[in-house]
Amino acid sequence: MATAIIDGININYEIIGDGGPIDLPWVALITGGRRGYEELVPLAHKIAATGFRVLLHDRRNTGASSMSLSAAQVEEVTWADDLRKLLESLDALPAFIGGSSSGARTAIFFCLRHADAMKGLMLLRVTGGEFAANRLPENYYGQFIRAAEEGGMEAVCAHDAYQERILANPANRDALMAMQPELFIDVMTRLRELFIAGAHHPVMGVTEQELQSIRTPTIIIPGNDLTHSSASGRAAHRLIADSQIHNLPVEDQDLPLIPFGEWAEHEAEITAVFSGFMKGITAE
User: Fold this and answer.
1) pLDDT per residue as tens digits for the range 247-281
2) 110 shares its domain with 182
3) Number of structural domains, the chain?
4) Residue 172 burial (CB < 10 Å; 0-12/13-18/19+)?
5) What is the reported pTM?
6) For residues 27 and 123, what is the distance between their CA atoms, to the nearest angstrom?
7) Which of 195, 213, 232 marks a domain boundary?
8) Residue 152 sits in which domain range?
9) What stretch of H or E contains 221?
10) How far is residue 161 from each of residues 15, 34, 61, 75, 164, measured CA to CA in Å?
């Protein structure tokens, strides 16, 4: 693992693979939720074994990266801009950008804002639908707003989600405890409002017009739970011109969330699909 300073924020990252003998382009994979990148390490190693150099990183406010809360824009836009700067600092552009769930949204925003820095877009477990629109604002923001209201920043730090970040980087506790609860509540409330404003699009967070504007080669592997419905993946495929879609041998499940780790048995197929997509573009 290594650390880069991006706009004054410490970003934790890891590079897996060496690009192979013909120096294939870099691949950046972005995890879902507000989790660190660890869940993507097995998939990254499989993709690296096909000849690509894979970048994993903890987005700001996740994993071992620094805490720096701001409501200037939705978090996925901030993360996309941070990733662009991180890849540039590594002389890794243009790159393939892929992600799962909120990582897929981040990858889409990267494409919308930095298409010149991309070779292709790879979307996994696209989020959308009313269930996700109702669940995620509470999951990402509401519960932490209440914790701060009821118990201040000590209660926020005690929450499992923030304990994960503090365990990964103990300095994150100091950063959180230095915040006034009123400021934390204000920032999280505004972030929730920004998130809700885009939550009811067929592909969460992104308008149909934005998806229709994408000209970057794209491949989509839909999810199969209520947060990542297969319908959301099909909507992305329908709206992104000339995109490809690959359906895994999975059935839609009436479950709020299937953890990414439970897709481990499909990682070989995901690797073959993504690697074939990237090598096809690289050979053009």
Assistant:
1) 999 999 999 999 999 999 999 999 999 999 999 99
2) no
3) 2
4) buried
5) 0.96
6) 13
7) 195
8) 133-195
9) strand 218-221
10) 25, 8, 11, 16, 5
